[in-house]
Model the fold of this input.
Amino acid sequence: MEELAVKLNSEGIQKRVISPGKGDLPVFPDGTKVSFHYRTTLCDGTVLDDSRSMGGKSRPMELILGKKFKLPVWERVVITMREGEMAEFTCDTKHTALYPLVSQSLRNISVGKDPLQGQRHCCGIAQIHSHHSLGHQDLDHLQANPQPLVFTLELLQVMPPGSFRLDTWAMSDEEKLEAVPQIHEEGNELFRRGEISAAAEKYHNAIACLKNLQMKERPGDEAWVRLDEMITPLLLNYCQCQIMLGQYYEVLDHCSSILYKYEDNVKAYFKRGKAHSAVWNEAEARADFAKVVELDPSLEASVARELRQMEERIRAKQKEEKGRYKSLFSHSGTASTTASTG
Done:
């Protein structure tokens, strides 16, 4: 143990065991999957990220060793731990320079966004030296002022190679393309069973997988277009889930992005119309539904039903507001009478 501590110190890493794990130190060949909770802090104790509350959920980190994760120091320190162990690692700046980019991806994932959203199409080192905002003030400050960080890890599980199904991010390009139809169907089955959140996550995973491949192609090229045509139906399924989950503004964003590229996509107009209707954008909803009927007259009955439901909600809202205003003026008149007779 002392020998290990000396070796880590020589690499600019200081380890402090908070609670020991169980059993012997595992063997960690390449391809081993590790699951752990992490908390990242500055040396003054300021918390940057905590996997137990990331995006309002407890979301353990999973790594497959040997897959060249963007933050190599996590692979370096986790192989010094036993299952169940909790330890604190203070790591020199040379190990933490890429953390802002890693954190941005993890934060995106925690709120259901593309892990690469907001990142420029260049290598990590180039992004570090650019002035491109990561969309988070604390990460922008850390990117401009690299410094040592403290990682508090709790090793939850160690799975040897071959004992688990690969996550999409750990697959080769060929494996990703082969896996997407299966993930798509898994999402469809979950949707049919009414497990809407789980279905949305499946669709999101498949989309992220294809977008990762798409980033390697030149926009507009044949391969890029082919991948985009695979992404679009998945994104529409994801939007249907988000409508059912009440995430209307996300639906507006995604459907608008589809229509920017595919002006005659009826499903995108229909879903965007439903989202506009849900957030009281009456004029925009009517325009989208009119476009649906123009592109596919067979959907006229479905559009009429949506319009009736929207009009009923608008009337109910107006009635509620009228009653509230009437009550407000009634109280105001009572107060004035009381004041004058006093």
Q: What stands out?
A: The beta strands are 13-19, 33-42, 47-50, 61-64, 86-91, 149-159. Confidence is low (pLDDT under 50) at residues 120-130, 337-342.
